[in-house]
Write a structure and sequence with these properties.
4-stranded antiparallel β-sheet, alpha/beta, 10 helices
Length: about 425
């Protein structure tokens, strides 16, 4: 195993890790205080200087940083190094506002490759393995992040990117990769294409699937593993922090994602108040970069809902529970909090349905309604659709506490996605006063 994988980390003690974290935090605070007016002003307002932080607990004295605040500094307002030291720029799509730009120095790119290499190793990837990367390449961090991490580990990369699903199947069949890195919803589309071509995906060369970029449920894991005959594990990251590789699930345990805490310091806060919560309590994940040079972030609100647990396979790093929802993805339907992954759990357990669905929100008078649009399984009898719809209605009422309508559509009728899937279509309009 190359040194850039997991070698050497197993011997790291809790005390050594905390010392590294505090040193990294203080160095990061000095860097942003000297170079980033946004953070300089925040510390000055508190009457603090970086050296006032003497303990990791002191981090909670600093304000949280939001995505809107990052957008307000577009494009390079958070840059902590001279622009000439930047070697690469990534950005969010900007579909809900100005793009969020992230800049990387040479050292940042090396750090990123290292944490993704660790992640692939934790998932079961090994030097010499072929890694099929079906994340999109470009401004999105998924493709290039996976690519350089796999190369750092000593793997051979197949840079397939997204789209052209029939070609994805051909490449997997012909080149025989052991590992695939892709969003879980697009993996389902690839599996559909295998079966459309009369091929059994469980007989392919794939042994490990590393899935991220969107929340996915345990039911979807079971669906993918059963159909593909692989170990399906979770990778976590976000462009504002670095990209994929912030945390990784181990194929040995599949019990949550170990956060690479020597580079990223995690906290859990109450989503409503922003107050810190102890390990073990569920709330919103907040991350601080400890080693990033180009654009460090301090106490960044991810909006992802999870909790922190003790490390297992890769102690002393703590685990974050699998993210199954976001505070900003939550649907409030007639006073009940609903997450798309709750509906996903139901759909995947009802025979006769495919794992492709969308939620259509509308308003009838003063009442919000939700319709679950879900595809029929291609092999299911046509008459099964009505029974399956009734089972979904009953199961959602029982599990979530709301009444929904269900429409079972034909196989392949819902729009497929090559990247993150848009689960919710909101056609509600503000009520007239």
């Amino acid at each position: 195993m190359p040194e850039t994988g997991l070698a050497g980390l197993a011997e790291l003690t809790q005390e050594e890790l905390r010392a590294r974290q505090l040193a990294g935090l203080r160095q990061t605070l000095r860097r942003v205080y000297a170079n980033v007016p946004f953070y300089t002003g925040r510390l000055d307002k508190l009457g603090m200087v970086p050296d006032d932080v003497q303990d990791l607990a002191d981090l909670a004295r600093l304000p949280l940083t939001t995505k809107d605040e990052l957008r307000s500094t577009y494009p390079f307002g958070l840059l902590a190094v001279p622009r000439e030291r930047v070697r690469r720029v990534h950005a969010s799509s900007g579909t809900s506002g100005a793009p969020t730009v992230v800049a990387y120095t040479e050292r940042d790119l090396s750090t990123w490759a290292e944490v993704v290499a660790r992640s692939i190793a934790a998932a079961g990837g090994r030097p010499g393995h072929l890694v099929h990367v079906a994340y999109g390449y470009g401004l999105f961090t998924g493709g290039l992040g996976a690519h350089y991490g796999a190369e750092r580990l000593g793997c051979t990369v197949i840079p397939a990117s997204g789209g052209r699903t029939s070609r994805q199947v051909q490449l997997i069949n012909d080149l025989r990769p052991e590992v695939i890195m892709v969003t879980p919803t697009y993996m389902l589309t690839i599996l559909d294409e295998f079966e459309r071509q009369g091929l059994d995906p469980a007989r392919s060369s794939l042994k490990v699937g590393i899935f991220g970029a969107e929340p996915w449920s345990e039911a979807m894991r079971a669906e993918i593993e059963a159909r593909a005959g692989i170990d399906a594990v979770d990778i976590y990251g976000l462009s504002e922090v670095i990209g994929p590789g912030v945390a990784q699930e181990s194929a040995e345990t599949k019990d949550g994602l170990h956060v690479w805490e020597d580079h990223f310091y995690p906290e859990i806060v109450d989503p409503a108040t922003g107050e810190p919560l102890p390990d073990g309590e569920r709330g919103e994940l907040v991350l601080t970069t400890l080693t990033k040079e180009g654009m460090p972030v301090i106490r960044y609100r991810t909006r992802d809902l999870t909790r922190l647990l003790p490390g297992t396979a890769h102690a002393p790093f703590r685990r974050m529970e699998k993210v199954t929802g976001r505070s900003d993805d939550m649907i409030i339907l007639r006073g009940v909090n609903v997450f798309p992954t709750q509906i996903e759990d139901v759909v995947l357990r009802v025979p006769g349905l495919a794992p492709h669905f969308q939620l259509l929100l509308a308003r009838e008078g003063r009442m919000d309604t939700m319709t679950v649009l879900v595809e029929a399984d291609p092999g299911a009898p046509a008459a099964r659709g009505r029974e399956a719809a009734a089972e979904v209605v009953a199961a959602v009422k029982d599990a979530v506490g709301v009444t929904v309508a269900v429409e079972v559509t034909g196989p392949g009728s819902l729009a497929r996605s090559e990247g993150k899937l848009s689960r919710v279509i909101d056609r509600r309009e503000a009520p007239q006063m």
